[in-house]
Description:
With about 625 residues, this protein is an alpha/beta fold. The protein contains 26 helices and 15 strands. The chain has an 8-stranded parallel beta sheet with strand order 1-8-2-7-6-3-5-4, sandwiched between helices. Strands 11-12-10-13-14-9-15 form a 7-stranded parallel beta sheet, sandwiched between helices. The site of adenosine-5'-triphosphate (ATP) has 20 residues, from helix 4.
Amino acid sequence: MSKTKVKPVEDVNPEVMDEVEEAEEVEEQRNVGEEEEEEEEEKVEEDVDKSFEELGLDSRLIRALTKKGIEKPTLIQQSAVPYILEGKDIVARAKTGSGKTLAYLLPLLQKLFSADSGSKKKLAPSAFILVPSRELCQQVYSEVSSLIELCRVQLKAVQLTSSMTASDMRNALAGLPEILVSTPACIPKCFAAGVLEPTAVSESLEILVLDEADLLLSYGYEDNLRSVTSIIPRRCQCLLMSATTSSDVEKLKKLILHNPIVLTLTEDNDKEEPVPSNVQQFWVSCSAQDKLLHILALLKLEVVQKKVLIFINTIDMGFKLKLFLEKFGIKSAILNGELPQNSRLHILEQFNAGLFDYLIATDDNSQTKKEKEEPKGEDNEENNKSKKRRKPKLDAEFSVVRGIDFKKVHTVINFDMPQSVTGYIHRIGRTGRAYSSGSSVSLVSPDEMEGFEDIKSFLANDKNKDSDIITPFPLLTENAVECLRYRAEDVAKSVTKISVRESRAQDLRNEIINSEKLKAHFEANPRDLDLLRHDKPLSKTAPAPHLKDIPEYLVDLKTQEASKAVKLAGAAMGNSRRSGGGAGRNNKNKKRSRKGGDPLKTFNPNGSKRGHGGGVGQKKDSSDGSTKQKKQKTV
Ligand SMILES: Nc1ncnc2c1ncn2[C@@H]1O[C@H](COP(=O)(O)OP(=O)(O)OP(=O)(O)O)[C@@H](O)[C@H]1O
């Protein structure tokens, strides 16, 4: 058992030093008698099966959840909500997509509902929710706001981001909101600008949430967090939510928490699987040059379910891929840290709303920085000239993989392999969220094999030591891929570095214009957002008609069969917009598809029409660890 200590304040912004010194007295009071504090560690068991009512939640919240179509708490919610309602400090470690946001938001709101409204008016928010990226800030803010609206309570939430001016921040805080959602960098900025008073925060703050805690320090927020923690009163309840365990989480735990209860979500008693078991993981071995060919085969032959999120490691690669796919009539949009914030949020909204099926994304700026180190190519001189012209400013608070809740992503494709195991886990976590299922396909070149082996051995556990968790993708035959080779290589040659660079610059210009010109208009007319499409073609020339459709004679029978099965399953699950069918029809079909419609589970690569138990994914269904999966599928 470890002891909880509060670390001394070190690098605090000098402009707020006076206030911080005052507040240090509060901090000292916080430390009194804490030497002997111990944390409790608790594993979240699978067999807990409580309803939201049984967790002690307010009926207004339960009604709001029902309106959102959420009927049953996830495991982490079942476990965390009662402790948070009791007022305990919590460290909640649960895999990505397990519903951690509601696990803290529901009790947090309930506590604010019942806070004594007769007490003197607070000069600072009662709850701070600190998150590592702007996208996440927006997401959490939307979730809180929609819950407040659905519950019809008199609470106000605001979000602050570092790009806001002092007067924007002042305006946002003017209505004395109870809840503040922001990145940690905003708080010292508010102190320095006199928008928030540290003493008022010390007096008012009741709950502090650090979401995606494992990222907060690695994103460089340590100093910001120290200046916040120095003024947190002892009575303030602190909640630390994280998908992975890391030394950073431990550091934050020691810096901020008091006598915490550590909740660890595992699927059975002794193992911790970081990737949800409802995500089937596949890989395809191919050379780096053949990646375009393979992704074309996956998407064009429709052997993966939509919607698809495709990860690449550099922004240029994203544009190359978009231009390449475009030539085959496959529309996609690009998301990266170079785009203005409004555009990024809008792209996410449109993808979540199902306006397009393919989104190409870089995960965060640590990956895209690599671009600077890329070897110089043919048009080297041109390259250097244009670098002077175009210095894309990457947003330090951009992150796609971490915490962002992509809706109904069925497949994640790693076009480029991530640089770390954690990167892999978080990318894969964009599918299979809460009670849904999904799959991932990683394209692995010989250069990436070592990293891939590291990922596999990390994911392997005692039970799966001898069997691979990431298995070869079964629905794509070599023949099917080879049939597309000639076309793919021909088109790939036409996507030159110059065309990539021009498209990237053009896209950025367009998005900046969209973002600035339309900001005010969209605030007044939110519905018009739908008119601004992000999946428009980049290329000036229209795709050649013969590349749009792959003639049937080119595709072997097995792949045709796999493709049909994937499409049928997609339509039955309501994944395909083209399948038409109203909600009623989709609902009827849902049950059927759950039983055996997933072709990745039933398709037999050896040729028989239906695999009876021998298909990929079957093992997972029948293993001991599947109790949760079965339970989830019946919800
Ligand atoms: N009890 C529930 N039943 C069904 N869906 C839920 C439930 N709780 C949350 N969800 C949905 O599951 C999705 C994932 O939730 P959330 O974003 O909170 O996951 P997370 O654990 O925070 O993941 P990450 O670590 O990636 O941030 C969201 O779309 C959310 O609305």
